[in-house]
Amino acid sequence: MLIATAGNGSSADSTPSPSLPGPASAAPSADSGDTARHWWRDAVIYQVYVRSFLDTTGDGIGDLAGVRTGLPYLKKLGVDGIWLSPCYPSPQHDHGYDVADYRDVDPVYGDLAEFDRLVADAHRLGLKVLLDIVPNHCSSEHPWFRAALADGPGSPARSLFHFADGRGVDGELPPNNWRAMFGGPAWSRVKEAGSASEAPTGQWYLHMFTPEQPDLNWRNPAVAADFEDVLRFWLDRGVDGFRIDVAAGLFKHPELPDSPDPAADERTRDSVNPLAWNQPEVHQVWRDWRALCEEYTARDGRDRLLVGEVSVRTPSEQAAYVRPDELHQAFFFHLLTARWDVDTFRRVITEALTDIAGTGSTVTWVLNNHDQVRTVTRYATEPGGGVEGIAAGPGGGLGPARARAAALLMLALPGAAYVYQGEELGLPEVVDLPDEVLTDPIYHRTGSRQHIRDGCRVPLPWSGHASPFGFTSGTDAARPWLPQPAWFAEHATDRALADTRSFWHLYREGLQLRRSLPQLGEGTLRWLDSPSQVLAFVRGDGLVCAVNFGTEPVSAPAPGLPLLASGDCPAGTLPGSTAAWWMHAPEAQ
């Protein structure tokens, strides 16, 4: 990846940076053959949160048949594939991320036959299918954990998890000071079988999320062996790869000592505990999984993808996960968390292209997912974004304009991209859900609405002017599992398709150009000299992308009308909070 810098009004920026390693000069991928055939390197994948996509049974919960019904819509949008949220049997304490059986489908979503039909239909349309896999923890209703409770201390069943005696005179204190990501201690005490006490007086078990999600002990070889079998089960059913939940987790420090960063507040999410995350042993798991995927690729020449949810502090730490023999890709969350600021965006993009692309992988860009506040609302609450009206729902201030500009920027960057369902409709966050309908365990563990995720998971509006907006095919009495606000009508799919100025058409046109222009996808990026509030770069041999992070118009970095713009963009001008693409090679090059 070649990056030359010049710009943002700084004399220091006017000096070209040294050439940085990219796919052409980095260590070769473990895949054989020309990297041009590796579909995942510049793919755009659409994240389907199954229970909120489309309901065909009338129970108010989305299902696999609904996803299958929506495939032509996604094909028309122009994405390359879909990532399905967990649809395994689950008590749904964390909506599928508490898995009770890794080799089946929860009846609320369908069955294995319906899953097979979904994969077959997707492949007929040329769409890839990625399945979410959850290896860090399972459900407390998983047969393994039930056996661990029944068999007692010291049993082989307990060695599949992290059971430990408590501290204190009678073991009444947790084994260490670790905190759970969703609030409270990371330990729960059990009532041993045969105990005369009604209170839990036995051992403690580790759960880095909720008590219903006990962490698996990956130091026990049986865990790795079982997950290899799970991967084969789904690969044999035709999936094209896996999104890996908590990919920096799995291994904990073997002695389970106190964390050097204890969370004093029960509402604090202990995401920086170096003893629970990012342990060095985890990399061998990804080498083993990569080798398994290569085994399948060798049979039919079809790449299987591993993309990890790798939440680490720096891009250089993330780069260790996408070395040529480990994960193919890892979500680059630093762009998702970047505040609306030209210097911040430039820094995180440069770090990604330096550290991630330097491994031979491509950067996997993401602006939103099922755990984050939607971009329209997030950018509206940034400085100068105008938060007025956000509580009322339909966005506000500069949020929609900034979200459109960020989408066009992401689609212009080298590498792959993931789009969360509803982002193509410009859906804002639903911030005023009543307390009594909230399902997020973060809320129920902390009593706080801060960081809750229900607002980005409200079922999609498809058509009409009132809830359920075509989401459910049931009777009028059937309600979506989370209530849809009345203003969702403004964002319904039928309206978006009819309005050529909608978010949907911006995404579709951007995806079409991304596929038709060789300058986009993989390739080079070179920064251009630009005003202080503008981020501008050249892709390949002449596609210019520029984003005005300010609110006042500036001169465009290329003459003429743009190929595509996130808002009105007269020739010679780049308005505030707007991104645009031009097919031109400026003299500044």
UniProtKB/TrEMBL annotation:
Tagged with keyword Hydrolase: yes
InterPro entries in UniProt: GH, GH13_cat_dom, O16G_dom_2
SUPFAM superfamilies named among the record's database cross-references: (Trans)glycosidases (SSF51445)
Record-given protein name: Glycoside hydrolase family 13 protein
Similarity remark: Belongs to the glycosyl hydrolase 13 family.
Biased composition (Low complexity): 14-32
One record GO biological process: oligosaccharide catabolic process
Domain of life where this protein originates: Bacteria
UniProt keyword terms in alphabetical order: Hydrolase
Region (Disordered): 1-32
Gene Ontology terms, MF aspect: alpha-amylase activity
Keyword tRNA processing: no
Boundaries of every Glycosyl hydrolase family 13 catalytic domain copy: 47-457
